[in-house]
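## retry 2 of 3
previous attempt timed out at serialization; input unchanged, resubmitting
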Amino acid sequence: MIEALQFEFMRNALLAGLLVSVACGVIGTLVVVNRLVFLAGGIAHSAYGGIGLALFLGLPYLVGTLGVALLAALIMAVVSLKARHRSDTIIGVIWAVGMAAGIILVDLTPGYNVDLMGFLFGSILTVPRSDLWQMLVICLAQVIIVVYYYNDFLAMSYDSEFARLRNIPVGWLYFLLLGMIALSVVIIIRVVGLILVIALLTMPPYIAEKYTRSLAAMMALSTALSCLFTTTGLALAYWLDLTSGATIILVAAAGFLISMAVQRLRIRH
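## retry succeeded, writing output
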């Protein structure tokens, strides 16, 4: 792996993986403890409509994808708050419509044969330096927001009714959290693709939850695990000539299975 870092694309890939790990650790933890995995999946898959829109209109990838992801997150937030008993159905519809719209827009894009595999399963080796700066800004903004609202997010995550009694703006925090999930999804897609984004967003926090006793510790351990999984997966993909995104997810899955095995051994003893 060390010799591979002489290439700029490998250095960019490594930095992208580390930046994405911060989003996975911080925002992924909030996704897991608030049980928003299905909703995050809906945002991730509807974001494909933004990819198609960006290609069709000739917009930068980030502009189209982020715009549609934020719009989907806003709609899902309103639906889940106002029509909770039907939210899973509506989220499923938005999920499917976003994917379908993206595919149709790609088909209608004149003279452009897009590599769908890159968007579906990631293209970390093609991340340009300009995208790294955008990822850095997004990650820093998310960390600052979470640190500032940490106690409020903590109260909302574990007892939303208690949070409301303390006059914590739960509704505003919920919208803010979904917006940050949309931001995270957009940058993670570049690394592992929209098909695998939820796996990387949720597996490290799930493992970390078993070995920590506070939300902050869970975020820190989850970030460290995400860094471990992305760097190890990237190295294995380089050595074995495999698809990077899929390799990263398989490494994370191996860590997930090892964690479950260790947990069972601890329970028995």
